[in-house]
TrEMBL record:
GO biological process, any: pentose-phosphate shunt
Cofactor(s) this protein cannot do without: thiamine diphosphate
Classification via PANTHER family: TRANSKETOLASE, TRANSKETOLASE 1-RELATED
MF (Gene Ontology): magnesium ion binding; transketolase activity
Matches recorded under PROSITE patterns: TRANSKETOLASE_2
GO cellular component terms listed in the entry, alphabetical order: cytosol
Domain Transketolase-like pyrimidine-binding: 2-68
The protein's name: Transketolase, pyrimidine binding domain protein
Pfam families in the record: Transket_pyr
Amino acid sequence: MRPSVRLAALMDIDTIYVWTHDSIGLGEDGPTHQPIEHLAALRAIPRLSVVRPADANETAYAWRTILAAATAAGRSG
């Protein structure tokens, strides 16, 4: 998935990605199935904004902020 995200960011394709279960404390599969290293890899991609909210309130605010930024930039979100 990371190569396609990187290419979309480099080509400036207007995309909003939503990922879940990035913590070892979440999910039923245990720590071996939680890709906690992906956050650092995603932050290293040029032109890609990464938001990692910690709770429901931050998630709601982050979602509104991302959609507002996409709308202001003329993107369909």
